[in-house]
Amino acid sequence: MHRFSMWLRDQPRIADILIASVFVILEAASAPRSNTPWLFFAVGLAMCLPMVCRRELPVLSSFAILLFSWLSTLQLHLVDHDQIGHPASLLLIVALYTLVVNSSRGWGVVFVLGLVVDTALKGMLLGYEMPATALYLAFFYAIAWLVAEALAVRHRHHEEIAARLEVAEIERDRRAEDAVAAERTRIARELHDVVAHSVSVMIVQAEGASYAVRTHPELAEQALRTVASTGREALTELRRTLSLLRTDNSTDEVLDYGTAGLARTSQLMRDAGLPVELEITGDVDSIGPAVGLGIKRIVQESLTNVLRHAGDGARATVVVRRDADTAYVTISDQGGNGMTRPGHDHGSGNGIVGMRERVAVLGGTLETSVLPGDGWRVHAALPID
């Protein structure tokens, strides 16, 4: 029985058809007692049929039942002389309930006024005792209204919950898409920092070796050794980065940051021909992996830009300072031969964009500015958790 009731709840149209069918059977059983059975049954059938579409068309079906109830009162008065009643008149209670649940209180009030007219017609034409009959009907109509109000509140609550769940699902999907996009950006940023830095150094050294191979073979040999060591360093760094991206392990074996990482980066640039002065103040090695790696990448990208764009004779200074809750990174250079550098005016270079994205992710700030003599300065402040 419980399963059947649950099935009916999921099939509202079938439930309404069953209710209408029950009253059609009751009308058919009462019709033989009428003076005109066919007319009696036809009026009763007309009252039952709107039940089938009461959920889809609550206003139309409810007022159709009310209209046919008025007609049934006239039919009983004129033909059957008040000797019999229509069982389908009970559907007026269902119609009122349907209006309040599926439509609005305004239509419910109008329908109640129609019920007052219906009750008055029954009292005048069928001889119902008043006010006893009116109070009797009013009691059942009031019960129908109160039950409908309670269920309407419940339905609205369920709809609100469903709407919130839908919004939550949309928000969850949006967060998942944002997470995927952020992860792609992180991977692209890590690979750019590793590959672009090392490849830039290798290109500069290879070009220098090609010029010096005939006139200064010892310098060409040194440049090629730098290319080889840079390539090995890039391969090692790439493996570390891929290990980080695959496992999210932030261990010292995976990440190369802190004093040692900054010293290696500076030495690599010196080997590539860029004089670098490194100054570290404070306990940089105790900084967490995310900020520590961020500091290294900023230094790495900035020095690579100096090597690529500052020209011959350029010098760079790296200052890393850590206080209680912030790490400050400043990379400045004295320009060499006055070459124009991409991004000096508006910071539009991809490297600078990548640094800004990294600093933004870490919750810090990044400033870039031009120094006298075609110099360039990058300053970042990164909060330490």
From TrEMBL:
Residues 6-149 form the DUF7134 domain. The chain crosses the membrane at residues 60-78, 84-100, 107-128, 134-153. It is an enzyme of class 2 (transferase). CDD domains: HATPase_UhpB-NarQ-NarX-like. Residues 293-384 form the Histidine kinase/HSP90-like ATPase domain. Residues 183-248 form the Signal transduction histidine kinase subgroup 3 dimerisation and phosphoacceptor domain. It catalyses: ATP + protein L-histidine = ADP + protein N-phospho-L-histidine. InterPro entries: DUF7134 (IPR055558), HATPase_C_sf (IPR036890), HATPase_dom (IPR003594), Sensor_HK_TwoCompSys (IPR050482), Sig_transdc_His_kin_sub3_dim/P (IPR011712). GO terms for cellular component: membrane. SUPFAM superfamilies: ATPase domain of HSP90 chaperone/DNA topoisomerase II/histidine kinase. Its EC number is 2.7.13.3. Pfam families: DUF7134, HATPase_c, HisKA_3. Keywords: ATP-binding, Kinase, Membrane, Nucleotide-binding, Phosphoprotein, Transferase, Transmembrane, Transmembrane helix, Two-component regulatory system. GO terms for molecular function: ATP binding; phosphorelay sensor kinase activity; protein dimerization activity. The keyword Nucleotide-binding applies. The keyword Transmembrane helix applies. It comes from the Bacteria. This is histidine kinase. It comes from Hoyosella rhizosphaerae.
